[in-house]
Amino acid sequence: MTSYLLFIGTITAIYALLSLGLVVSWGQAGMVNLGLVGFFGLGAYCSALLTKLGAPIGLGWVAGAALSAVIGVGFCLLTRTLRGDYLAIVTLGFGEGLRLVELNERWLTGGSDGISGIRAPFKDALGELYPWFYFALAWTLVALVAWMLARVLGSPFGRALRAVRDDEKVAAVAGKNVLRLKCQAFGIGAALFGLAGGLYAHFTSYISPDNFVVQLTIYIFLAVTAGGYSRLIGAVFGSLAVMTILESSRFAAEFIPGLSAVQIASLREFAIAVALIVIMQLRPQGVFGLRNERAGSARADAAAPAAAIPAPSK
Questions:
Q1: For residue range 193-245, what is the model confidence (pLDDT) as tens digits?
Q2: What's the CA gap between 237 and 214, in Å, rounded?
Q3: By the 8 A CB rule, do 34 and 215 touch?
Q4: Taking the mean position of all CA atoms in its chain, how far away is CA 273?
Q5: What is the separation of C-alpha 66 from the centre of its chain, rounded to a whole number of angstroms?
Q6: Rounded percentage of the chain residues whose pLDDT exceeds 90
Q7: In 10 A of CB 208, how many CB atoms?
């Protein structure tokens, strides 16, 4: 039971990193990224392939985050004229496109067979203590990233991001470089998705395209929505809530007789759908509310003072 809880706790930390990245790009900059799972897979494959060639695991994580950030910035530049639903559709297609590349380029990714035997840090040396080590490592990274983001988003840069999110035209009139701010936010979010992918690859020691499906995007959006899409603490809380729903539904067979394995798996997705509907009906602003916004008219009210926001310090 302890091993199971440590495994779930570590996966929750990885989900929390994904959620923190989404808070930056969506909650703070207003860019809906439905292709986050593509960057997640990109970081995982990059780190796995580099370490297969003998590179240190830490370097693999950094490289996965850096590659995801560069691709994210490039993608943001290519889609700079898209807004709202159009951007969401394009990012969704981009994420699925990356998964298809991973599936078909067998010479590089192993195709549907995936990559196995991915090295894990200190696994042989730690033995039975390894699950505890990786659990602590993952949550330490979550705490460090959350602390760094809190400082960044509380700075003039963060206020400028929220000005862009609320009204790009007003932010531009106030002297903000809108495109640069959006690329920076998208790049930071993509880097965190890639870092989470690297952590996942070296934790499970096996990855395949089936690990990076659109379904994961729904989980992360639910996590961020549940906590409050602009709140860092909400992202962590939402990840815990989503994982609790997903894993508790596994034990439904004990209380609901006559369910097959397929029906139990479907029940998990049903539970997620119901949870999202309930949250949007009862508390659309999330458990922790929306940062720097007034309930009921967040978007309209926040746009008014946007012009008064000072430019990021140089």
A1: 999 999 999 999 999 999 998 889 989 998 998 888 888 998 999 999 888 88
A2: 22
A3: no
A4: 19
A5: 15
A6: 59
A7: 18
* Global pTM value: 0.88
Q: Which residue has the tokens 């602003």?
A: 285
Dig out the tokens for 71 from the structure: 């691709």
Buried/exposed 110-132: b ≥16 CB within 10 Å, e otherwise: beeebbeebbbbebeeeeeebbe
Per DSSP, what are the bridge partners of residue 207? Answer: 115
